[in-house]
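ok trying again, last paste got cut off:
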Amino acid sequence: MSKKFLIVTSILLVLILVLSMVGCTGKTGAKGATGPQGPEGPMGLQGLQGEPGLQGELGLQGELGPKGSTGAAGATGSKGATGDKGDQGEPGTPGATGARGSTGSKGATGSKGATGAPGAKGDTGPAFSNLGILLYVEDGTKEIAYVTYVLDEPIALAGLTELMFFQELVYRGYVAGQVNTFGANVILGIDADGDGIYEADDLDWHFSHDPAVLGDDTFISMDGASIDSVTKVDALTIWGWWTTNAVGDGCGALCITYPVLTDPGNFVGTRLTLDSQICLIRFVVGGSPNWQDIAIRVTSEMIPSEVGVFPCQ
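nice, full thing came through this time. structure:
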């Protein structure tokens, strides 16, 4: 309670007490006029706090009001931010190894498959003699050892683009005044008249120089490359190819490489023409004093047709 309230209350109590005393002493006179309001008295002392009043009775519960209508659905909230990735968990304990399963029964044997068709026949392998032919002469002025390769199909002069072989010095005796370093010689048998037949006896011609042994054909010869051990010979690059002259009693174009020899400009004075065909190839040792008491093994990828010594011993 405020101090003003306490003061007003105290004044009212004093007035009531005075009026009670007046009523007991005499007849109440007429009500006097209200005097002017006196000055506000001093604030009275605060009274003692009263004791708490008794608790009022609990009122009856009111009736249940009508069920309210369902409110409108609230707006969907925005998607929350993705949380931080949690730490990786510890690996679990490995499970126990399962027991081995029982072995299944063996399946039935399948039926035998049909026999396949025979494969194509392979190429014929090289003859044993193609692994190397030994050519030996005691006196090259009297004999020629040779190995001949007859071509299945003749080829044009310019069609021969490679002629490779190996030569191995197997034995070389000492001959006074003789260097004896020549390797195997090469002879190409040429069908000069175009009848498809090689008629010349080139081995005989090396000793006789007789045109009759050539018929209408001729040959081209490579002087042997030097040899000291095992040598790989690219014959078409060797300097020293030559052929017979047109008459057939001597040499024509002399000592040039094979590709140059096939140039028509070098056919002048020989039996060679643009239509000339190579029918056979020989490797030879002998036919001149350059080969004395010497043995040379020659090896080529070609299959030999004949091996021998001229003239026959």
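cool. The mean pLDDT is 80. The beta strands are 133-139, 144-156, 164-172, 185-191, 218-222, 230-234, 241-243, 277-286, 292-299, 306-310.
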